[in-house]
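Example 5.3 — Ferric uptake regulation protein
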Amino acid sequence: MPENRDQVIERLRGHGITPTQQRVEIAQVLFERHQHLSADQVLARVNARDASVSKATVYNTLGLFAEKGLVREVIVDPARVFYDSNLDPHHHLFHVDNGTLEDIPVSQVNVDRLPDLPAGVAVEGVDVIIRVRRSGAAQ
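Solution (predicted structure tokens):
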């Protein structure tokens, strides 16, 4: 998955995104490997690379990348949003104790029945987030 700068630029262009310096820096952080990063984590990693990017730019760019299908937005709760660079079908395990998210293969989760749907709609996808806490940990 690691991509060089030229590959990142081509990926952005392929999704209809103009590859500005800041967008390329953000994309390079996201596409280092399959990972789940919050906007604040992306900001910290980009700025640690000696690239000066504002928080607003990171949030706007992540929103654009999600809209264009470059990353998957995983909303654990209203205060916790992760950006997932793994676009293959999978579900998530959220560790409440440390705030980390990990992938679960689709084959390990069985969703065999869905509720009756309103007329005129179709299922676009099913996203499962399983929240776990260490046994005996305070809530």
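Remark. The chain has two domains: 5-84, 90-132.
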